[in-house]
Recover the amino acids of this structure.
């Protein structure tokens, strides 16, 4: 049995006529008749009773028609599903990100283009999101300075960002145009946990300048750091893009050359072929081009 034989039977069973089945399949009537006869002879079963030009199903034919109805309905469902995935009529993408400030504009662009695609968003530091991508806990990640050298990863630069200082509105630095690393080393520093790239690049800058901070308070979330800054516990190295409006907090730039790093969109290489990931990368590319234009 092959699909041509089964499909000829299926259409003839639905149409109740070999000639109408031939017209629907765009075949000659003898071809349809031959395919069905070969099927019957191959399995030694009679599927139709022939009455001149008129045919009717036998009991075996009705049983087989019930099976082929389910078979071709499932085939059509599969075709519809794949078409939806190609055209992004629906679906789900799982995203991991180190913070909202870079991923949200991309998500907004993505949802504007594909409003029927759902998403989940996992937050963590760069190490956590990188590991989530490797272990396929997320489909795609937006994170800072991922570890290079993984052949099975695709990486696309999104935006280069610079480290400044968040301080409370009553902090002695609040009226300064910029601060130096030497001044920063003398301040109480509010730092993210190990695994935070912001912390890593800032500590590296201090080390390269042969400076050692006098006091560090470790706080594990951006929200808690922002509140600690507002309450006057110290100053926090923070990306320029991460500062949202809060009258209690001010951003003070670091004197050049200030530490910086690049945020990337990353995914497993084979995931690039999926419609949702491909569409997310396209949206990220559009947002990245916009940022490059305004950052010049």
């Amino acid at each position: 049995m092959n699909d041509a034989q089964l499909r000829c039977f299926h259409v003839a069973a639905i149409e109740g006529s070999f000639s109408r089945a031939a017209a629907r399949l765009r075949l000659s009537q003898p071809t349809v008749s031959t395919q069905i006869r070969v099927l019957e002879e191959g399995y030694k079963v009679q599927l139709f009773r022939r009455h001149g030009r008129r045919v009717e199903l036998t009991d075996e034919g009705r049983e087989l028609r019930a099976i082929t109805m389910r078979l071709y309905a499932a085939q059509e469902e599969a075709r519809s599903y794949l078409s939806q995935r190609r055209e992004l009529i629906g679906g789900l993408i799982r995203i991991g990100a180190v913070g909202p400030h870079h991923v949200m504009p991309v998500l907004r662009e993505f949802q504007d283009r594909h409003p029927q695609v759902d998403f989940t968003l996992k937050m963590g530091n760069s190490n956590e999101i990188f590991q989530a991508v490797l272990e396929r806990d997320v489909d795609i990640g937006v994170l800072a300075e991922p570890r290079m050298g993984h052949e099975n990863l695709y990486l696309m630069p999104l935006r280069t960002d610079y480290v400044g200082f968040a301080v409370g509105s009553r902090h002695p630095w609040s009226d300064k145009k910029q601060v130096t690393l030497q001044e920063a080393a003398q301040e109480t520093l509010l730092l993210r946990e190990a695994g935070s790239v912001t912390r890593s690049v800032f500590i590296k800058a201090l080390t390269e300048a042969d400076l050692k901070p006098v006091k560090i308070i470790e706080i594990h979330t951006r929200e808690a750091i922002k509140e600690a800054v507002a309450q006057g516990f110290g100053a926090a190295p923070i990306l320029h893009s991460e500062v949202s409006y809060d009258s209690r907090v001010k951003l003070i730039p670091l004197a050049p050359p200030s530490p910086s790093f690049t945020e990337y969109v990353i995914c497993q290489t084979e995931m690039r072929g999926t419609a949702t990931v491909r569409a997310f990368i396209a949206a990220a590319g559009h947002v990245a081009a916009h940022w490059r234009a305004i950052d010049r």
Observations:
- The mean pLDDT is 88.
- The chain is about 45% helix and 25% strand.
- Residues 59-87 form the longest helix (29 residues).
- The longest strand covers residues 153-168.
